Amino acid sequence: MMHKKWIGGVLLLLFGMFTSVLGAFIGINIGTDVSDLPSETDTVALLKAHQISHVRLYNADTHMLKALSNSGIEVMVGVTNEEVLGIGQSPSTAAAWINKNVAAYLPSTNITAIAVGSEVLTSIPHAAPVLVSAMNSLHKALVASNLNYQVKVSTPQSMDVIPKPFPPSTAGFNLSWGPTIYQILQFIKNTNSYYMLNAYPYYGYTEGNGIFPLDYALFRPLPAVKQIVDPNTLFHYTSMFDAMVDATYYSIEAFNFSGISIVVTESGWPWFGGSNEPDANTGNAQTYTNNLIRRVLNDSGPPSQPKLPINTYIYELFNEDKRPGPVSEKNWGVLFTNGSSVYPLSLSTSNQITGNSSGVFCVAKADADPDKLQDGLNWACGQGHANCTPIQQGQRCYLPNTIANHASYAFNDYYQKMQSVGGTCDFDDTAMTTTVDPSYGSCKFTGSSNSSTIGGLTPAAIAPSSAVGGWSSNLQVSNLQYLIPAAFLVLLLL
């Protein structure tokens, strides 16, 4: 029995989109302030289609937890800020919460962590006095159910609890929260859990009054004269993200704790903002998110902890258009609710995420008119002679079943074969080039370093600047319909 459990655990660790060979993973947050939120079943199907292996929920929604059953996806469930006070004041309430929201779904739903509140110290400071009590009571309830080794308890905190994060070596927690943070760290140490950090270089940059360059926030290389160096350690920081994580490690160390790892529970970049938010745009969001994925999956830590991977959850899956606040607050999602990407994003296996492909790809624009996309798709699969078999129903690139996904595959297949003889990536201004490999799961786009080279077609029309007709695909946007990916790994560890 133990042998079977061990093998099952290894397979779970190996399964999924955002898992690298060495163990670092990228997960994703799923918010629900969405006016056209897909059903829970469709959402899980979308996660599977993109091979997402770790998700964080902000609550413990019963429908979502049931939909995640037998998916293999590791789930972090959330105690809402509204629930913290009651749980912190009553161990019986904590026990009931565990029984209802965790024990009832294990083992079929792979719950591995509980996030107690969200930025409690800075968002609902009146609950701070009972935060650690809530964590302790939840942990004791897990112990009583013999689940404490499988499910870890922690609480996500923002960078605001560290008033001066740079230079990282001198960073420290806000002393007004000192006793509470010390108790949190002691709890984490005692229960072998981890510190949950929400790290947003977007805010570090936009609120920094020009102190740091945009490239530093976006993981872009800096010229030698602009290198960011900690004057005390002489560590070079190539990204604000690394500096934020390291500032947190130094802050933990200042409280005389060691051996506590950090998991970044939120990080992302908004892709659209108001007139006073010029840095919230698709270009920056695409750059940040793809570079974040590459950074995390190189399996290394920040300069002070180079051997500790920075496991991270992207904020977020869908745009939460019902959230209050500025325009940017509603536009952090990486996918639209119909399954198409907001911007070219490598939601795929780690070798594609890390950009091993040396090519340029042609994909549909996120804001392209659906009718024009359909016309372009028809043209590419007809007069353009693109190989559109993989996007037919039942084939490896059919899911997600959206015009944007199918058009991206067809546009790219045409472009890869025809660019050498003048073929363009335009399609009536509905397409764009990207260096990010759009392949995902078993769907390998033409030109990917992981796809077979297909070519030799006789040039037909060269530049489809106004693509119309020619091939009826019947690939209309419908309700999300997905199949469980046929992703099976055979592991010979005998």
TrEMBL record:
Superkingdom field: Eukaryota
Membrane topology, record value: Lipid-anchor; GPI-anchor
GO BP of this protein: carbohydrate metabolic process; defense response
GO cellular component: plasma membrane; plasmodesma; side of membrane
Catalytic activity as recorded in UniProt: Hydrolysis of (1->3)-beta-D-glucosidic linkages in (1->3)-beta-D-glucans
Pfam families from the UniProt entry: Glyco_hydro_17 (PF00332), X8 (PF07983)
The entry's keywords: Cell membrane, Disulfide bond, Glycoprotein, Glycosidase, GPI-anchor, Hydrolase, Lipoprotein, Membrane, Plant defense, Signal
Enzyme class: hydrolase
SUPFAM superfamilies to which the protein is assigned, alphabetical: (Trans)glycosidases
Localization in the cell: Cell membrane
Signal peptide start and end residues: 1-23
InterPro entries: GH, Glyco_hydro_17, Glyco_hydro_17_plant, X8
Name by which UniProt lists this protein: glucan endo-1,3-beta-D-glucosidase
Gene source species: Prunus avium (Cherry)
Protein encoded by which gene: LOC110744575
